[in-house]
Amino acid sequence: MNATVRMPAPTATEKPAAPRVLVVDDERSMRELLAIVLKREGYEVVLAENGRSAVAALERGPFDLLISDIKMPDMSGVDVLRAAKKLDPDILGIMITAFASTETAIEAMRLGACDYLSKPFDVDLLKMKVREKVENRQLRQENILLKRTLGATHAFSNIIGRSGSMLDVFKMVETVAKTNSTILITGESGTGKGLVAQAVHYHSLRRDKPMVSLNCGAMPETLLESELFGHMRGAFTGAEQNKKGLLEVAEKGTIFLDEIGEMSPVMQVKLLRVLQERRFRRVGGLEELQADIRVIAATNQDLTKAVAEGRFREDLFYRINVIPIALPPLRDRREDIPLLAEHFLAKFAGQMEKAVTAIARPAMELLIKHDWPGNIRELENVIERAVALEPTPSIQPESLPSVVRSSTPRPAASGGAPVVHELLPEEGLDLEARVQEIERGYLAQALERANGVQVKAAELLGMSFRSFRYYVKKYNLR
After folding, report:
1. Is 333-405 CATH 1.10.8.60?
2. Model pTM?
3. Are strands 230-231 and 243-244 parallel, antiparallel or unpaired?
4. Which residues contact 299 (CB under 8 A, 6 or more apart)?
5. Distance between CA 25 and CA 42 in Å, rounded?
6. Which among 156, 162, 112 has a CA at the least distance from the CA of 142?
7. Distance between the two ends of the chain, CA-based, in angstroms?
8. Which of 134, 205, 238, 377 could form a disulfide with 19 if both were Cys (CB 3.0 to 4.6 A apart)?
9. Which bin fits 157, alpha (ψ -120 to 50), beta or left (φ > 0)?
10. What is the H or E stretch that residue 297 is in?
11. Helix residue ranges per DSSP H, 309-401
């Protein structure tokens, strides 16, 4: 993959094409008023005096937006919208009428009208609505183009991004996918490590074989060993028959070990042997089995720190860190937030069968400003909630959670220098005790924000549930 995935910027001599708007109204004064208002806003405006001339204009060329009076002598605005949708299913429509009725409003919205205004209307309101609709259409088209560019040659599924850091990830995936090298994917919770693992597998030479996933932090050591290696009948209480482990299921394919930093020391030794010798035994078995697999591991922990503290084996770290792929947090690639938000909007609006087709500019600005400690997973949940609550065709700020509406971005450190929150006292301090105090404070705040639900609190801090539970017990939090 190369930089052609990024949308090309216009050259100094090439101006981007102005959005095209078709205005349909049998009143000349209304047509002229709308033409003046919209041309001042930078739109290319085409006027039609009746429904038939509007349909003829639609057949001659594409438009981004249709603004139509509903009651006209030859064709209704709803009929014009219906014809427009046949020519371009993605065209947006704003219906205007002095004779509003529930039936026509429902029909227009059913056909895909994104808004409905009654005469007389506020010109500034109309300008705002037109701007929102056109910008959201452009975002959707850009998102579709990006996904099509990726999908046609790379099939990157739901990985969405146009930022430089994500393009680097795409390029790395394409480069290493065809190898059999072990990969370590790092990043905060919710950044999409599982999706990247899938992309690697489906671009690899093993794509016709199974890919299996195992969360190393979601089960106790004995069960994890059985899941990974399988077991023989009678190996332990409840083992009533032989069972294949995921290493056997994934033969000649890929195994994805998520949250590998949570693996116990004993399991680390056993996994190291698999990576070194490519052989293993079932629990309670004597036969050596072949392990022709590709291993992809992922963690939200700093494994170099874990190695230094003796919590993770150094030799295993070097075995899994052959090719590292680091995923950036969402706050470090804010230019991707509109694309992701539009993607989730389309997903949940379709699932809920709701005519929510856009995100209002003030709401989008709040989404871009928020720091997203839960990353893409948090953004997905926020958009799902907003679609469920929103009564209008566009998501408004009121439908966003209070934490998003009131958030302020964290300050960035300049030149890579650390952010210093307080001055070092003249007499010095106990650094370990101070760090623990800060750590305990963040844990308590996360618990409070999550209403005591530890799984949600762990996600807010980018931690696994197992680690979070350990620290809650350590600091005696409730």
Report:
1. yes
2. 0.59
3. antiparallel
4. 184, 185, 186, 259, 260, 261
5. 21
6. 162
7. 49
8. 134
9. left
10. strand 294-299
11. 314-320, 337-352, 361-369, 375-389
Residue among 346, 477, 334 at smallest CA distance from 407: 334
Q: Which CATH number fits domain 431-478: 3.40.1190.10, 1.10.10.1020, 1.10.10.60, 1.25.40.10?
A: 1.10.10.60
Architecture of domain 19-121: 3-Layer(aba) Sandwich (3.40)
Report d(CA 392, CA 169) in Å as an integer. 37
Q: Which residue has the tokens 């503290």?
A: 309
Number of H helices, E strands in the chain: 19, 16
How far, in Å, CA of 467 to CA of 478, rounded? 15
CA angle in degrees (0–180, nearest 5) for 241-244-245: 125
The 3-state DSSP class for residue 470 equals helix
In one-letter notation, the amino acid at residue 233 is R
DSSP at 283: B
Fold of 164-327: Rossmann fold (3.40.50)
Structure tokens that stand for 300 in this block: 């939200």
**In tens digits, what is the pLDDT along the chain, a chain of 478 residues?**
333 233 333 443 444 568 889 999 988 888 899 999 999 988 999 999 998 999 999 888 788 888 988 888 888 888 888 888 887 777 888 888 766 555 656 666 665 566 777 777 788 888 888 888 887 777 766 655 455 444 443 445 557 888 888 989 988 998 999 999 999 999 999 999 999 999 999 889 998 899 999 999 888 888 899 999 999 988 888 888 888 899 999 999 999 999 999 999 999 999 999 999 999 999 998 888 999 999 999 999 999 999 999 999 999 999 999 999 999 999 999 999 999 999 999 999 999 999 898 999 899 999 999 999 999 999 999 999 999 999 998 999 999 999 998 865 554 443 333 444 456 677 777 777 777 888 888 888 888 888 788 888 888 888 877 778 878 888 888 6
SS3 helix, strand, coil % of the chain, rounded to 5? Answer: 50, 15, 35
351-365 burial, b for 16+ CB within 10 Å, e for fewer?
eeeeebbbbbebbbe
For the chain, what is the radius of gyration of the CA atoms? 28
Which of left, alpha, beta for 187 (phi over 0: left; psi -120 to 50: alpha)? Answer: left
Q: Looking at the chain, which residues constitute the CATH 1.10.10.60 domain(s)?
A: 431-478
Sign (positive or negative) of CA dihedral 174, 177, 179, 184: positive
Which bin fits 282, alpha (ψ -120 to 50), beta or left (φ > 0)? beta
